[in-house]
Amino acid sequence: MDFIKLPVAIKTIRINRPRLKLYYPQVRGMSDLKLQREINCQIYDLVYQLIEEQGFYENPLTDITAYYEIKNNQRGILSLTLINYAYAGGAHGLTLTKSLTFDIETAKVYKLVDLFKEDSNYQEVLSEIIEEQIEERDIGVIDDFPGVREDQDYYLADKCLVIYYQLYEFTPYVFGFPYFPISVYEIEDIINLEGPLGQMLY
């Protein structure tokens, strides 16, 4: 019988200071405390990287509210999204979203390239699927679709790979974040079976 990989426990850390309201996840209850610390340090580092990118430390008028969403917590894979909203005046603020996908047994953070076989042409395959979705969903654009980068933002949600882009990358602000869900079965032939998508196939 295969070993069952249970979800990890998640605790919400709350920081409520003037101009800064943070809600971010912290992994708890792992048997290997060193791996647990590694995972939590990488989450913490990204939380504060986003705050810095949004000018919190440079502009005293910047207010930030940050929260998170757990997208996948099963089969030894934890995928989460950090969402930071910053407002420094003007018509509206700006939101940044970044994701992390972990192997709970090693604390490895997976890049998009790690999900696919070597020489699989995955960027072209994913770009073609997304271009079809843009047309089918009649998504308005303000610039040419940039394709899928090697460092492309993504997260995993059960049996889907979700590729997404930041505000203004190629769609108008009113459209919000453009998300493109892709079933693992649609790209099964190029998936690295040793990676996180391989864990989701069966």
Structural overview:
The chain is 20% helix and 33% strand. The chain is flat. The protein has helices at residues 33-53, 122-136, 196-200; strands spanning 9-17, 20-28, 63-74, 77-87, 94-103, 108-109, 154-157, 160-164, 179-183. It has 202 residues and is of the alpha+beta class. It contains three helices and nine strands. The longest helix has 21 residues, at 33-53. The strands form two sheets. Strands 1-2-3-4-5-6 form a six-stranded mixed beta sheet, covered by helices on one side. A three-stranded antiparallel beta sheet has the order 7-8-9, with helices on one face. The model has no long low-confidence stretch (mean pLDDT 93).
Globally, the shape reads flat
Q: Which structural class should the secondary elements be placed in? A: alpha+beta
Major sheet size, sense and barrel closure:
6 strands, mixed
Sequence of secondary-structure elements: EEHEEEEHEEEH
> How many strands?
9
Uncertain residue ranges: none
Mean pLDDT reading: 93
Give the radius of gyration: 18 Å
Distance between the termini: 15 Å
Oligomer state equals single chain
Question: Percent of residues in beta strands?
Answer: 25-35%
The total of helices stands at 3
Helix content: 10-25%
Strand order of the largest sheet: 1-2-3-4-5-6
Topology:
Layout: E1 9-17, E2 20-28, H1 33-53, E3 63-74, E4 77-87, E5 94-103, E6 108-109, H2 122-136, E7 154-157, E8 160-164, E9 179-183, H3 196-200
Parallel strand pairs: 2-3
Antiparallel strand pairs: 1-2, 3-4, 4-5, 5-6, 7-8, 8-9
Short description:
The protein is α+β, with helices and mostly antiparallel strands and 202 residues long.
